[in-house]
Amino acid sequence: MMRIFHGAVVAAIVIIVMGTAVAHEPNAVDGYYDLGRGELLVTVQHLVNDPKGHFIKEVVVYKDGKEAARKDFSFQTSHRNQTMPPFKIPAQVGDSFRVVARCSVSGEAEATIEVVDRRPDVRKLN
């Protein structure tokens, strides 16, 4: 009877370790700030097999070292990445945001997104 119990415990440990081994942190955080709309758009690349069980659980945005916005999730929008509605945060050219994405299983990724003027260069033609 004890051997069966020990075997079950060992099997459970192996399953837990294997689950953690295939879990990985987010691959990358991408985004840009839309000056015209006053919105920060963010996508987190995170390859997963099961977006309902292994997902980006939160994305936190910092501006000037202080938390400016946060979004929490209970699933991932696709097997490849987590997309989300824009963050409505006032900013101007020269500002920057630090965006941190945390995985529900393990790890995190972050990026700094600079606010730049992305308007097209329009010149008068004579």
Q: What are the key terms here?
A:
1 helix, four-stranded antiparallel beta sheet, alpha+beta, 126 residues, elongated
What is the terminal separation in angstroms? 93 Å
Could you tell me the radius of gyration in angstroms? Answer: 21 Å
User: What is the ordering of alpha helices and beta strands?
Assistant: HEEEEEEEE
State the total count of DSSP E strands: 8
Strand share of the residues? 35-45%
Content-based structural category: alpha+beta
Question: Shape from CA axes?
Answer: elongated
Q: Give me the number of helical elements.
A: 1
Largest sheet: 4 strands, antiparallel
Low-confidence runs of at least 5 consecutive residues: 9-22
Description:
- The chain is of the alpha+beta class and 126 residues long.
- 17% of the residues lie in helices and 39% in strands.
- Strands 1, 2, 5 and 6 form a 4-stranded antiparallel β-sheet that branches. The chain has a 4-stranded antiparallel β-sheet with strand order 4-3-7-8, with no helix packed on it.
- A hairpin with a 4-residue loop joins strand 1 and strand 2.
- It is elongated and about 65 Å long.
- The chain starts with a helix and ends in a 12-residue tail after the last strand.
